[in-house]
């Protein structure tokens, strides 16, 4: 059996364009330990499904990736 996944939703602030949301989603999915991710420009929400035991570390990487794509965007935890 694989790792136990944990799914969490986060609200995004100052996500300015749908294209940025798509780029973020693509980049987050490439992070090791992430099973699935979705970033919605319309609802300004992000869902991350990642390994439970490394969730906090993975979220730090997610934040770094998001900052590269959209420096003004904040993830509200």
In terms of topology, how is this protein built?
Elements lengths: L4 E9 L4 H12 L4 E7 L4 E7 L3 H15 L4 E3 L1
Antiparallel strand pairs: 1-3, 1-4, 2-3
Helix pairs in contact: 1-2
Tell me what you see in this structure.
The protein has 77 residues and is of the alpha+beta class. It has a single domain, classed as Alpha-Beta Plaits, CATH 3.30.70.100. The protein is built from 2 helices and 4 strands; from the N terminus they run E-H-E-E-H-E. It has helices spanning 18-29, 55-69; strands at residues 5-13, 34-40, 45-51, 74-76. Strands 2-3-1-4 form a 4-stranded antiparallel beta sheet. Strand 2 and strand 3 (45-51) form a beta hairpin. Helix 1 runs antiparallel to helix 2. The longest helix has 15 residues, at 55-69.
Structure, briefly:
The chain is an alpha+beta fold. 35% of the residues lie in helices and 34% in strands. It is globular, with a radius of gyration of 12 Å.
Features:
4-stranded antiparallel beta sheet, Alpha-Beta Plaits, globular, 77 residues, alpha+beta, 34% strand, single chain
